Amino acid sequence: MLYTCISPTKVLLSRSPPSPTSLLVSDFTPDVTAAAPILSWRFALSNGELIDLSVPIVDGMPVYPGDPPVTVVPALRVATDGANVQRLHLGSQTGTHVDAPWHIDDALPRLDQIPLERFTGPALPVDARGLAPRTPPPPSILPADLRPGDIVLIITGWSTRFGHPSYLDHPYLAAATAQALVDAGIRTIGIDAASVDPSPSSDGLAASSDGLAAHRVLCGAGAVIVENLTGLDRLLTAARLGRPIEMFLFPLPLAGTDGAPVRAVARLGAPRRDPTRARETP
């Protein structure tokens, strides 16, 4: 890992963690050229706009077929108890949530075994809007410049149907597209739909003989999947303007579980002067 420290006069890089007294001493090798892409990306985001991409968790909200219903009711009230406290009953896959690999295989890592780095990083929005219901986009839809550490967001436009039966008829990832992401080193994938795989229909019929094909490819590679994102079209606009996008997808710290709700937030940086220029390395 490359550690970067900034003194009042210079940028300092080191292969070992800095000590509390090392910021102004010669423990580091100055290399402003090597640090420039890192600093440029961070400075562009330092005063960025924050966007919430999460579905609100409310009493009686829609859930994936077969999942526990959501209940949010008062447990304590100021008038009688001196404080307001809500009682929650919900499944680990409620609302905007992350799937850990253990979600589909007992032998794979659980949520609290996933590195925190999986839940934040530069985002690449992929425009998959306009597809017919229950249609997978081809692998060719993926950008050519995918890099390990990127968070790939598949934008179907289906989040506008959340709460309607047709929400379950969303586009999904074919196993070949999931494999292309894994082969590119991607380990965090998000989608504005109920699942990266076909969902059961609103009448409860199964989606296919193997309704978890994309999950098996992604989770089998140790990837995490974020589902039920909303409002991702704003990220497409930001990307067209050359604004760097940083995602924060940290789940509730539920120990030993298959997943948890997340507060999905994007930070949009300042537009580049030349939006066509190749993106910088964070």
What is the percent of helical residues? 10-25%
Tally of separate domains: 2
According to DSSP, the number of beta strands is: 14
Task: Briefly note the CATH topology name of the largest domain.
Answer: Glucose Oxidase, domain 1
What's the shape?
Answer: globular
Mean of pLDDT:
85
Order of helices and strands: EEEHEEHEEEEHEHEHEEE
Query: Roughly how many Å is the radius of gyration?
Result: 21 Å
Order of strands across the biggest sheet? Answer: 4-14-12-8-9-10-11-7-13
Low-confidence stretches: 1-41
Proportion of residues in β-strands: 15-25%
What CATH architecture of the largest domain do you see?
3-Layer(bba) Sandwich
Distance between the termini: 13 Å
What's the CATH H-level homologous superfamily of the largest domain?
Answer: Putative cyclase
**CATH level-1 class of the largest domain:** Alpha Beta
Major pleated sheet: 9 strands, mixed
How would you classify the helix and strand content by structural class? Answer: alpha+beta
Count of alpha/pi helices: 5
